[in-house]
Amino acid sequence: MKYIPFFLLLILFTSCLVKKPYTTQNGYIFIQNDERSEKEWKLVWKDDFNAAELDTQKWTKIPPNGADWGKHMSNNPDCYSFKNGCVYLTGVVNRDTLSDSRPFLTGGIYTKGKFAFQYGKIEICARLENARGSWPAMWMLSEQKKYGDYPRNGEIDIMEHLNFETKIYQTTHSYYTLELGHTDDPPHGSTAEIDTAAFNVYGLAWYPDELEFMVNGKTTFTYPRVADADASQWPYDQPFYVLIDQQLGGNWVGRIEKADLPVSMIVDWVKVYQ
Q1: What's phi and psi for 178, nearest 5 deg?
Q2: Under 8 Å between Cβ of 159 and 168
């Protein structure tokens, strides 16, 4: 009979005593434990994009949809590449309009149905290329639709960038802001200056009573839960999944300039803490 050394037994026993900072639902939804906001963040999920292809256990390529942001989404290989430990999500001029009549195609990934979390901190390290009509975004939507259809479950925009601007937009959207019109009480968004030639870390610390937006570890905007507001002001008490996409065109960003394409959002890594 073989015996396990005592120090290995001790390691195994100790590891069993270490409490995870979350509980899981359905095997992929990470719910932060109570009182974790007062403790040190622990890494619970990440992707370094060091492989030669997308990790389909974590991500799905975003399919096209009728929204302004999603009408050019595609799984075309021209829109995805992996090099230097990064994923390139790219907007291109469509080279084959016979099989797909859309003039432009672009890449995006999301964790819907594969990873979602409630409360914690997310950081995304990326570099944003510039083009007329470029609209890269990092954002979050509800996984379970606790309050019904959009916009009742809210939307958290960690980062949006337009064209050649040197600033990003960080915003919250909900029934409270979009339908009831409460965009200033409290302010539902702000901007932050960035260097688009550099990799920056875009972040969100999500608490039961506040959304804290960050760039390179510095707080840039906060959105609080308001105690006496309409209940629709705070739909952020449920799991959300992550979307990262190099969008093109739309009413907000304006026309697309073919001569500026291809354009990419180059993502180095994504990390989630609780």
Answers
A1: -85, -40
A2: yes
Given 129, 160, 179, 210, which residue is catalytic?
160
Residue 155 annotated among the catalytic residues of the structure? yes
In this prediction the pTM is 0.93
CATH number, domain 23-273, options 2.60.120.200, 1.10.3290.10, 2.60.40.10, 3.40.50.2300: 2.60.120.200
pLDDT in tens, 207-261: 999 999 999 999 999 999 999 999 999 999 999 999 999 999 999 999 999 999 9
Contacts of 245 (CB under 8 A, 6+ apart): 62, 69, 73, 89, 106, 107, 108, 109, 110, 136, 137, 265
Supply the DSSP symbol for 103. S
Q: Which residue in the list 38, 40, 155, 212 is annotated as catalytic?
A: 155
Three-state DSSP state, 8: helix
E strands, the chain, in order = 22-25, 29-32, 43-47, 60-61, 80-83, 86-93, 104-106, 108-110, 116-118, 120-128, 134-142, 155-160, 167-173, 189-193, 200-207, 210-215, 218-224, 240-248, 263-273
Backbone angles phi, psi at 97, to 5 degrees: -80, 0
Catalytic status, residue 210: no
